[in-house]
Amino acid sequence: MGNWVVNHWFSVLFLVAWLGLNVFLFVHAFLSFEKATKYYYTRQILGFYRSTLRKQLDHNLAFHKLVGYMICLHTAIHIIAHLFNLERYSRSRQATDGSLASILSNLPHQENYSWLNPIQSPNTTVVYVIFTSIAGLTGVIITVALVLMVTSAMEFIRRSYFEVFWYTHHIFIIYFIGLGIHGLGGIVWGQTEESMFENHPHKCAEFFDKWDDPASYCKPPQFEGLPAESWKWILAPGILYIFERILRFYRSQQVVITKVVMHPSKVLELQMHKHGFSMEVGQYIFVNCPSISSLERHPFTLTSAPEEDFFSIHIRAVGDWTENLIRTFEQQYSPVPRIQVDGPFGTVSEDVFQYEVAVLVGAGIGVTPFASILKSIWYKFQHTDHNLKTQKIYFYWICREMGAFAWFNDLLASLEQEMEELGKVGFLNYRLFLTGWDSNFAGHAALNFDKANDILTGLKQKTFFGRPMWDNEFSTIATTHPKLVVGVFLCGPQTLAKSLSKCCHQYSSLDPRKVQFYFNKENF
Prior knowledge:
single chain, alpha/beta, six-stranded parallel sheet, three-stranded antiparallel sheet, 19 helices, transmembrane helix, isopeptide bond, superoxide-generating NAD(P)H oxidase activity
């Protein structure tokens, strides 16, 4: 009875975790299907989910990690419980004291039933049972798979050796197959329903020494392995996953690359066209290049605006895959390498125009989602969009290399000119920060500070050397907009996210009628 309680207590916790995962996968697959049927339901359903579940869906990676931690914890409990059980089985098999455990271990083989104790002789070891039983062998396999997936998902491995993380994480297929057949070995036993009438535990457990007595009303109990249950909990998400993979494969075809641009600091811009492609600001896509890897798909933020007749991405060389992709396009312009695109997928940046005041912070190539937003603003002013709710945008771009500002230099120059012509110079307040420079260049910039345009970018806004003083920036914004809601959006490192999140909390007023800062971070 103790074994049953230990194992089923784990099962209840484990199934709760998987139930939560199933719900998330269902919502994720449903949203993917919704995008495929956008001509019928897009604005209604997407609007509903973004308004009710936006914050939850934007933290899908955190939820994914939480489920992973829960699986690891419950796996450890499950393994420890079974090891204790097997050790107890071993002692019961070797016992000769006539105890209940020893009698149950020595019950004679019944027709259609196997031994209750998996250790069938005193010479059988626990290790032998583990590696010769279905439950034990599959348990070892899925545990090794889980360890590999968890260790390769560490941030250091994921950032430095992404390919190792990517391929190792796909061992989940082996994990799920092993999990589905793990219970077929029937290592957890239960008394049969027929036997419960002849030997009920509450009535007959104390009279185990009289089970063989023909005059006793308690007959020897019969047991059987409990049926496998795990497949029921992985079947639904498995079907949804297969459906989503088929849908993503279908959507990734028929992409035409219309323009290739090489920018400074090893940044590649791809402009593409795809039939039926529809996007919003700040969204991202998954890109696959079969000539480099048939399986790897990497996320890239769209840098084009929804108003444009193409969609574009900017790719910086930060790893083996991106370096190989850039090298491939540098060496082959005819024919252009074939790529596959899946998406677009939503992010927190979609909500930027829901705020009256927006603060956009991009670090390095993290400026890409805000390039899409700034382009969309340019088009909205061109077409006099009266539905634009946003009154003010603060844009901060922090770069380590001077050449990085050239990526969207023309865009910022166009926005400067457009704001002047429309008399809305104060709508966009942008600041560029250079964190890597030498003393000679800084001195040269100081000598030319009085010139109309910045000597580094050619823009009217001067480039700052160093990092922003966030306390000063937030204090100024809070003073300028004392009664408005300010949305803060970041695409950058975690250290910067902690600083901005802290400032949002610190400078938000306790009075809900006054200035409130809401922090939003891009997650891929």
